[in-house]
Amino acid sequence: MIDALHIAETGLNTYSTYLDVISNNIANISTAGFKKTGVNFTDLVYQDSQLRESTSTDNTNFVAHQVGLGTSVSSTYKVFTDGALVQSNNPMDLAISGSGFIEVELPDGSLAYTRAGRLTTDKDGYLNSMEGYRLSSNIQLPPDTEGIAISSDGHVLVKLSGDNDPMEVGTIELTRFMNPEALNAIGSNLYLQTKESGDAFSSVPGENGTGQLIQGYSEVSNVSLNEEMVNMMVAQRAFQLNSRVVQVADQLLETINNMKR
Amino acid sequence: MADVVQALGDALNKDMQAISQIAQNLANVNTPGYKASSMVTGQIDFSQSVLGRKSIPQVNESQVMVYDFKNGALKQSERSLDVAISGNAFFKTSFQGQEVYTRNGSLKINDKGVLVTSLGFPLISDSGDVNVNQSTSIKIAADGRVLQNDTLLATLELVSFDNLQLVEHLGGGLLATSKTNVKPAESWVIHQGYIEASNVNTSQEMVRMMELSKHFESVQKALSIYDQALSNGINRIGQ
Description:
A: alpha+beta; elongated
């Protein structure tokens, strides 16, 4: 009937998705290790108008008479810029100063990756992530551990009671991806590898751009409130514009309906 | 007498198409690299009748779409793989074996380490696809050189078109045109860490929409009045 209605509808859908993404970012403004989500927009396929052939006789020319079918969200992606590091004075807090991830094992044996380096220990003394998934480097702290030190290149040293020299119990490795934006975020600060993210490269912290470990600090969310507020205004105004188009298209249809009274 | 009705009906159709075009622009007000287009309303020709007199007005069929290729505003972005072009130039990429062009510089690196557009089509440089070593980030210089650790990987080839209006829009920000219309671009600059916003001018579109809806109403009025005149002619005078 009238394309404008449907085109504006794609606009409304797209900008409400955009608002969803923005609200998720704002909701997670104080989630440690949270990475904000960005949105890519794209224009949809163009349909040729019926006037296409009539305007050209030269077949090397394309005739520029096409009406597009609207817009859509082409992809969403995680923005992996570093969040600010905040001192926590908790020796179990690890911040990563580069683009590496800590590898953890999920209950079903598969691997996941996290940026939230707030470590805990389980009942057997193994180092776990904040949500209680065991680190795949399998580091067990002895029961009589008094202090723990983690070096910037991942060596975990413990001080046992009655012992003066620290003992090394393992190394935390960091993992890096070719295309981290394509990682599948499954919530709880965990990411899964996908085909698009490329292979996981594990290395000693500090090498291959994985970044160093910083003990006693935690990484806060990289959401910027200013940016989200500006994005929200853009999304809201774009939504309004499209709803205005719906109104105008509706008026046109009304005019047609009133043509013959 | 049907000719007037026909001409007015055509005018209504043209208005509807133009409104669709405005809807498309407004829906894409936030799409990076999107270029606005507008429909130039067909002019009214007075065609010669058989008797050589000026007669029935007809809406000219050759209504055309005009694309506005002026640069959109450059927005700073946090992604190092966002690149924007200032100047009249387009990135060259390939889609199903066909060479296509885009202004949308939200680049990414795919699982094979190749530099691709946001929809995943490889960018074409002087040495084909750009293969990136995964370990360090890349730098894209203002002149299109792609550098990693100060080593030159490739130079992006940017193109422009002899006639910007003879370009087909494929959706997804992709443009296609005939080979003969393509030439190497002159005078452009690539800005890394920026993204080109859509060049839709919302106030202009709103004004145009108001114009069109009022025009639509006037045409409808004209149609009603003409219809009434016919009705009078047929039903009253004939009595």
